[in-house]
């Protein structure tokens, strides 16, 4: 395996390790990507297309355990990272629909704002890739 390929694989692995959530009770930082409790009941996996890149950084937000949220996938919402219904505007012809999600524990979470994550709606470090960093000034 070439040195360049090994570096690229390591960089890709490191991107996936860079996302954090904190527990509201203890304030401890956990280096895992949170799980969407509604993942098997919603269309996150059925919508293959990613939305427009809104920002090149994730958004830290406090989420409550028993509340259902709608994460904007289209990238057009004015209340990012959550959906405000902009995808319903028939003149914009937006195909993506929001991703509904719940979290296991109340606390602070990093939600993806580049809309390119593979762990919708949570940030997985994809925003650190060069093509995303150059897409938004």
Automatic annotation (TrEMBL):
UniProt keyword annotations, A-Z: 2Fe-2S, Iron, Iron-sulfur, Metal-binding
Name this polypeptide is given: CDGSH iron-sulfur domain-containing protein 3, mitochondrial isoform X1
Organism for this UniProt entry: Drosophila rhopaloa (Fruit fly)
Cofactor(s) needed for function: [2Fe-2S] cluster
InterPro entries noted in UniProt: CISD, FeS-contain_CDGSH-typ, MitoNEET_CISD
GO molecular function, one term: metal ion binding
Domain Iron-binding zinc finger CDGSH type: 56-93, 96-133
GO terms for cellular component: mitochondrion
């Amino acid at each position: 395996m070439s040195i360049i390929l090994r570096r690229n694989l390591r960089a890709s692995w490191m991107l996936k390790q860079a996302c954090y959530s904190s527990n509201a009770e203890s304030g401890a930082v956990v280096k895992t990507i949170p799980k969407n409790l509604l993942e098997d009941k919603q269309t996150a996996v059925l919508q293959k297309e990613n939305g427009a890149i809104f920002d090149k950084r994730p958004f830290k937000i406090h989420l409550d355990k028993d509340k259902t949220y709608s994460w904007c996938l289209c990238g057009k919402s004015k209340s990012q990272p959550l959906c405000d219904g902009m995808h319903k505007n028939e003149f914009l012809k937006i195909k993506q629909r929001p991703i509904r999600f719940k979290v296991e524990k109340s606390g602070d979470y990093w939600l993806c704002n580049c809309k390119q994550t593979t762990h919708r709606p949570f940030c997985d470090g994809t925003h650190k890739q060069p093509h995303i960093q150059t897409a938004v000034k």
